[in-house]
Structures are given as C-alpha cells and as structure tokens.
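Narrative of activities, Objective 1.

The group set out to show that a structural description can be obtained from nothing but a protein's sequence at a throughput compatible with the screening campaign. Below is one input-output pair from the validation batch, recorded exactly as produced.
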Amino acid sequence: MKKSLFFSLLLCFTLTSYSQKQIFESSNLLTEIKLHKTVAIIPFEVKLTYRKQPKNFSAEANRNQEISMSKSIQSSMYTFLLRKREDYSVSFQDVDRTNILLKKAGIADKLDEYTKDEIAKILGVDSIISGVFENEQSKSEAGAIASAILFGGLGGKTGSGSLTMAINNGPNGELLWRFFKTMDDGIATSTDDIVEKMMRKVSRNFPYQK
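Output recorded for this entry:
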C-alpha cells in the first residue's frame, strides 16, 4: 500500500513537473542572420491569469503587474545577453534606448498593432526579439509553501505557464526563429530566474551564438 502511494505521488510529481520545448527555424535563418549587426529586444507580452480568482481581485492592478513584468523580462533578457555578449555575433540595443524610441513614436503601449518590420524601422535595427509570457496561478504562495513542507518539495508550485521567444527579420518582418517552452512557476520565482531557465534551454539553439 505504501509502495503504491509512493509511486502515485512520484507519477503526480513527474506529470506536473514535465515541460515541453518546441523550436522553429525558417529556411532563410542562416542566410539572414549573417546580415544582422544590431538586434532590439522589445517588451514581452505578459498574460497573468488565475485558476481561481483571488478575493479583492483588481483588473487594473493585474494589468499594471503585467506591464511591469513585461519590461522586467525585457530587462532581464538584455542583461543576460549582455553578460555573454562575447558569445554572440551581434550587438543588442540598450533597452532604455529601445523603450524611449518606442515611446517617442507613440507605439509603446500598442506594439501589437504594428508589424515587426515597422518596429525595426523605428528602432533602426536589423532584427527584433519579442516574446510572450503566460502564467496561470493555481494556488497561493502560502499554500505552496505549506505543500512544500508537507511533501518535502512535492507540490511546492504556485502556478504554471509558458514562454515564447521569437526573432523577426528587420527588413521584411519574416519570422526567422521561434522558441516555446512550458514551465512550472516555483515559490519566489523572479523574472531573472524565468529568463535564466529559458536561456539555458535556448543557448545551444540560439541563432546568434557564435
């Protein structure tokens, strides 16, 4: 009976911790990236939802959190790439410059209304890195901590989600490369942690890797 319970819990842990990874590469990828010198990282689109909406939920506060996290992921991505700039064949535009140019053009809060080649022209870059982070909270942080203590780490997850990262060609907006990964969100996971985890998976397939 104890063995049966143990394997049931182990199976549950394996299924909830499983993450999927998918990579797309255009047939033009290698030809086009050889022409790239400067790449801009634009704010990631963030969608935060709840399996069970918390008490005193505020749609406005949730949207503000999405906007804040959008720029945090952008900044974390830039910092990660900057730290390893010697490993890449291109330079990355400073995200402060990127955001100022987007704001001056009046499109900072409506990037989804513009094509990637239009954005690249505004920013004066050869390609655009963009992405989408989606997260669904399944339990409170306090509940996750209690589960972690009770099961010795099993169940200590506050939610699950996915992260998509894409590279579009500047001159024509063509999608050259796309990376998609599902992930569990652990207790006190920061945007730096999210980007670090993703880039560790991306590193061997990142087009600009020398």
